[in-house]
User: Fold this.
Amino acid sequence: MRRYVAHPWQHCIHPHLMGETLGWKEKIWGAKMLGVKDGFVFLLGVLAVGTIAAAAAASLLLLGGAAQQTALSMEESAQAMEYAQSCIEHGLMELRTDQAYAGDEKLSWDRGTCTLKPIKELQEGNLTLCAEGRVNHAVRRVRVEVLRLFPDVQIGNWTKDASCPAP
Assistant:
């Protein structure tokens, strides 16, 4: 190999420009690394690939956790809606057996509760039942307008996630 006269900028000049022919390693890597051992370059490459793989794995774990939380929220919301509808059905059955039933009742289950608001009488004898189902932080509401109780129950409007009028 040729020796060069020491020059202050020698470390910045590409060896190929100084007349040195490149070996097979330099041709593969694209440049000759002056003063750097091949093992150190390999180690840096492994660390870079490892960092990228760890970041990808962490992203997948976080996405999986978020998907699981979303599924749990959807399940709780559906359960809260079922509780609210159960309260409405309970109120309708109570009205059929006792027309003086006023509502304002709270029912509890293992995972949540539902509250039947006081029953309001509208024009022409129509009734409005409102219920709210709760499971953890999920809250769902149902409002039902009853047109007739006898001989069969006739529902005018069954609205999910509706606001209930103040008693």
User: Anything to note?
Assistant: The two ends are 98 Å apart (CA to CA). DSSP finds two helices and six strands in the chain.
